[in-house]
Amino acid sequence: MRLLPSAPVTFLLVSPARSDASGTPAAAPAAAPAAAPAAALAADAVVLDLREVEGARARMPDVAVLPGRQCWALIAPPRSAEGEAELRRLSGVVDGLMVTCVGGTEDLDRVAALGPGTPLIPVIDSAEALRRAPSLARHPAVVRLGFTSRHACPDFTDGMLSVQSTAAWVYRIVAAASAAADLPGPVGGICPGPRDRVAVAGEAAQTADAGFTGYCVSQPEFLADAAAAIAAAAVASTRRVGTGRRHLRRVPAHAGTAAAT
User: Fold this and answer.
1) Which has the higher per-residue pLDDT, 29 or 43?
2) I need a labelling partner for 166 at 20 to 30 A (CA). Which of 17, 86, 175, 227 fits?
């Protein structure tokens, strides 16, 4: 498998333009502003949203070759021979693939076979994927886990718990699966993420507190908020560990023996 130089913290989701059947590029969607390459310089990695382009050749934007920036593609497992051919081509262009709609390791096997050596990030976006998170994390092509967004959390418990309670529980399950497989912390906020600055900062902070070390946004102006929230959570975690160690040093060496007697 192709080794990556680092585990990005901030990801910017970009929707590239498509070409029609004649090969003429279509107009870029509103979500892909002309300034996308410049905006991407603020992100550690760019993610091309190619979930809706099966059967139409994606026009790879300039962000795919920005120096010092990883370029990923967000895809669903292909459903046709044409989609499989496009995935083969794509795997040789990008640094890795984020895969949605994963029902189990067999979906990752199919994607990995079409793009040998391409790093994968399966996106936990359903109750079934959450249940299989430990096995997905251990797949040989997987370098990290991803998670959709807290807005999808009620689906994981059929709405029986609040969004806040479900999110806290789900985030920790995904982070624990990553840690057990010795992977970097997961990436949150993937398709669809929050649409305002306060929500982005709040969700990024909550995921980071659970052990996530990456976050994906669809608007470049939110990158700094996500990065700041993750950095603050990392500092707080370090302080908690340091405080715990100081408390342990204060416990007398004979305390355990005295309690036992």
Assistant:
1) 43
2) 227
Residue 110 has pLDDT above 60, yes or no: yes
CA angle, corner 154, sides to 148 and 160, nearest 5?
155
Whole-number Å distance between alpha carbons of 226 and 217: 8
**Preceding omega of 116 cis (within 30 degrees of 0):** no
Q: With 50 as the cut, is the pLDDT of residue 2 above it?
A: yes
Computed from CA positions of residues 129, 132, 137, 141, in that sequence, does the dihedral angle turn out positive or negative?
negative
Q: Helix and strand tally (H, E) in the chain?
A: 9, 8
Q: Is 200 left (phi over 0), alpha (psi -120 to 50) or beta?
A: alpha
How far is the C-alpha of 152 from the C-alpha of 257, rounded, in Å?
50
CB 174 within 8 A of CB 188: no
Look at residue 177 and give its three-state secondary structure.
Answer: helix
pLDDT greater than 50 at residue 120: yes
